[in-house]
């Protein structure tokens, strides 16, 4: 058999094993009769071997369990086999994590069930560093949102928009983001026209950030961004073109109580 053929078989085998493991993880995730799956990790990942390893972390499990079976299911004794180690998140955090980081690939996660420590251990990025999250406010809502009760009411809801500063200076603009699934991704240049703040090319209104600062929308244009900003994004625009939102701060962040 030629080296090329061996490489093709190897690549195909990995994809197929990964697909079978993902199916297993999703079956667990959508099983409402058992504990809620928070994370599934394929570790010690060597697709050419008959023994594969899967770590499953649950929101609450109360024990550590292991099982081994064929990935083909149905009581098959045909390889590849998967060795599943299941435990709850708390147990994982209190033990050694290094054994599960070797050749590891995250197949499934629910960020709402995972503490920041676990996200960091497995390098799961759900948003770019420095992302400011908040809400779009219509122009007539500015005065209302300067009152403490109104601010608290709005900030008690889930953020609907994210903004990432392009540069350090005030006039470099921001890249708007939206939460897709479990990740905050940049709004595509062609899609921004569907958002209220674009207002048919005449941007208006405000963004209220989680820190209670309020920012007036001055304009929106389209173009490239510096590489130091682009590398932060979880997804890049194919054409390198992004909507850029320019803001003016009208209310400073809320100061913590002394």
Description:
This protein is α+β, with helices and mostly antiparallel strands and 258 residues long. The longest helix has 27 residues, at 3-29. 19% of the residues lie in helices and 31% in strands. The protein folds into two domains: 3-121, Beta Polymerase, domain 2 (2-Layer Sandwich), CATH 3.30.460; 132-251, no CATH class. It contains five helices and twelve strands.
Pick out its properties.
about 260 residues, alpha+beta, Beta Polymerase, domain 2, 2 domains, five-stranded mixed beta sheet, 12 strands, about 20% helix, disordered N terminus
Give me the Rg, rounded. 23 Å
Quote the distance from N terminus to C terminus: 73 Å
Biggest sheet strand order reads 9-8-7-6-10-11-12
Measured as a percent range, the helix fraction is 10-25%
Q: What would you call the quaternary organization?
A: single chain
**Structural class by helix and strand composition:** alpha+beta
* DSSP, total strands: 12
Count of separate structural domains: 2
| H/E element order | HEEEEHEHEHEEEEEHE
Q: Give the percentage of residues in beta strands.
A: 25-35%
Low-confidence stretches: 1-9
- Largest sheet features: 7 strands, antiparallel
- What is the arithmetic mean of pLDDT? 88
- Could you say which overall geometry the principal axes of the C-alpha atoms support? elongated
How many helices? The count is 5
């Amino acid at each position: 058999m030629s080296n090329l053929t061996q490489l093709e078989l190897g690549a195909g085998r990995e994809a197929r094993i990964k697909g079978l493991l993902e199916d297993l993880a999703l079956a667990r995730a959508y099983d409402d009769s058992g504990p809620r799956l928070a994370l599934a990790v394929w570790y010690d990942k060597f697709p050419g071997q008959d023994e594969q390893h899967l770590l499953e972390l649950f929101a609450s499990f109360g024990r550590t369990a292991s099982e081994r079976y064929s990935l083909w299911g149905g009581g098959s004794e045909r390889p590849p086999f998967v060795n599943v180690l299941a435990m709850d998140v708390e147990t994982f955090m209190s033990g050694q994590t290094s054994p599960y980081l070797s050749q590891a690939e995250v197949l499934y996660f629910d960020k709402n069930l995972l503490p920041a420590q676990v996200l960091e251990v497995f390098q799961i990025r759900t948003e770019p560093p420095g992302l400011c999250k908040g809400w779009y406010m219509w122009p007539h809502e500015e005065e209302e949102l300067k009152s403490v009760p109104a601010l608290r009411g709005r900030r008690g809801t889930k953020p609907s928009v994210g903004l990432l500063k392009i540069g350090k200076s005030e006039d470099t603009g921001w890249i708007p983001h939206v939460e897709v699934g479990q990740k905050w991704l940049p709004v595509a240049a062609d899609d921004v026209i569907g958002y209220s703040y674009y207002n048919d090319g005449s941007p208006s209104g405000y963004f209220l950030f989680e820190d209670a600062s309020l920012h007036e929308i001055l304009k929106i244009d389209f173009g490239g961004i510096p590489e130091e900003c682009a590398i932060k994004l979880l997804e890049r625009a194919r054409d390198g073109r992004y909507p850029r939102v320019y803001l003016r701060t009208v209310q400073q962040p809320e100061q913590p109580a002394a």
